[in-house]
Fold this sequence. Notes:
The complex is a heterodimer of chains A (407) and B (224). Chain A is of the alpha+beta class and 407 residues long. Chain A has 13 helices and twelve strands. In chain A, the strands form two sheets. In chain A, strands 4-5-10-7-9-8 form a six-stranded mixed barrel. Chain A has a two-stranded antiparallel sheet with strand order 2-3. In chain A, α1 crosses α11 (325-362). The two termini of chain A are 27 Å apart. Chain B is α/β, with parallel strands linked by helices and 224 residues long. In chain B, strands 6-7-8-3-9-10 form a six-stranded mixed beta sheet, sandwiched between helices. A four-stranded antiparallel beta sheet of chain B has the order 2-1-4-5, covered by helices on one side. In chain B, α3 (100-111) runs parallel beside α5 (144-155), α4 crosses α5 (144-155) and α5 packs parallel to α6 (174-189). The mean pLDDT of chain B is 93. The A-B interface holds A 1-2, 5, 12, 16, 313-314, 317-327, 400-401, 404 and B 49, 52, 54-55, 74-75, 78-79, 81-83, 87, 89, 93, 95, 97-98, 106-107, 109-112, 115, 154, 158.
Amino acid sequence: MDLSETISTAIEALLLNKMRTALASLGIVIGIGAVIALVSLGQSSQKAVASQIQSLGSNLLTVRAGSLMSGGVRSAAGGATSLTYEDAKAIMESSQITTVANVSPELQQRAQVIAGRNNTNTQILGVTPAYVDVRKISLSSGRFIAQQDLDSMAKVAVLGPQVVADLFGEGANPVGQTVRINGLSFRVIGVTVAKGGTGFMNQDDIVFVPLNVAQKQVFGVDYVGSISIAAKSEQVMDQARDEVGYFLLARHKISNPYQADFTITSQQDILGTMSQVTGTFTMLLSGIAMISLLVGGIGIMNIMLVTVVERTREIGLRKSLGARKKDIIAQFLVEVLILTLVGGVIGMVLGILLSYVIANLMGLPFTIAVSSIALSIGVSGAIGIIFGLYPAQKAANLSPIEALRFE
Amino acid sequence: MIQVDHLSKVYRRDSVETVALSDVSFEVKKGEFVAIMGPSGSGKSTLMHILGCLDTPTSGTYILEGKDMGKLSDDELARIRNRKIGFVFQAYNLLPRSTALKNVMIPMVYAGIPKEERIRRAKELLEMVGLGDRLEHLSNQLSGGQQQRVAIARSLAMNPAIILADEPTGNLATVQGEEIMRIFRRLNEEGHTIIMITHEPDVAKYAKRIIYIRDGKIDDDYFK
């Protein structure tokens, strides 16, 4: 029996019971759709993480206060008050440290910001002019905080675009206007360019003020929360981390590195962890999707077994007219393969649509790998063969006499 | 053409043995029209299945056109059923929801005959049994007599050595049955070898030779 005849016979058989055919392939549609959507979203978020590394600067180290081991208990990083503006200045000016390009001490706390009748709760970041260089910030209007603002302790503020939108409306230019932070008036001198990012990574929902103003007048503290350090290049990151680490240990008079009152992390550490988490989630969800694919396959096997019983007479007749075992196996396998492949293609299209919609909703770049298309075709074909072979063989092994007698 | 020697068939189920055929021997020559008669349970259906290569004997030999059928594999037997034997069943056994033309083409599909040739031959055969105007009718839209005529056309598709008919008129009214038997007689006159199972003497009278089977043995075997 030639292939085209087998295929047209299979299609006729499948069309005889359209509802059953549709329901049987639905399991594959859902399974493949879920796998494609999840794999694609996983790739999208990994891509987003990679582009965030680029935007944050791949040569960035962050020193945070805290992580003091006392009696075996490690306090939260950033929770302590052990870093000062002087530490940052010393790192910049030290002759022992050769791999650091720039140093930006920062103090970050949340506060209510008011402009006219609008207000928002956002993060207030006390910075020095070095911030622009270290964090690769650019301005859409006005200027950033300058050294003379620190020298004169000027109450000036640079707003992130999200804060501008919240306080002044989308696209407004607030330069020259006044905002109130913790009861103090600040003159707006600039607006940063949107950088993107969501949740705690949001770099647009932020207000920059001079560091010493934030310390002494807004929050009443004398420490800094963290020190961002730009290494001279990506290649000397490890060296820079060691140099800064030993320098601060010596400066804080700590001999045992395990008792350091600060931690140093690179952006890659954080984002590496993030992408690991994303990857684990993707794997987990794909695993669940794979299980639904397995369930779909079992459903198809079940339907095919019922079909074999229903068509016992037909099988007996075909055998008595000269069909060999392999003809019968081919007939049922082709049927089940059409079922799973059509289901796989529909599932693939739905999965791509779904991941496109979700990627747009979550602001992720949309990616579809050719590999996931090959995967869906391959997997649905494999499911067809794995779960179709047993019913097909069962059909082929029917005795023609018994099959012809079957009522 | 057909040579059956000391053929026996024993069914075993749960250590109970049922003898369906015991020591049956006969010969059928090309061009014969044989009716196998006997009461139900006599073993005539078992004999039919063995002659049709649907079943294998427990002992004895069955030689068809000089070939020992006992020594063939499943696939070789399928090939024999396809090329050498044309079946006509009591219940017609056509594929429902499939056209008369497609039903007649099934054996040719398994033989790998090209599509144009299949269609040409199937049309010719359906015209021969008087269904030239029913080619595209679905088999379940045809009357019983018409369905059996489609089945006869199908049995002739590969121009087989023998036509095996199992109670071909059993499900038909007398008039339609006679029509079917006239077709068989005409085929026999054209040179086809026909072996037919029946328990109706009216039907058996069309045959030239009658073999009676009782309790798995040949009781009588005579030419008219």
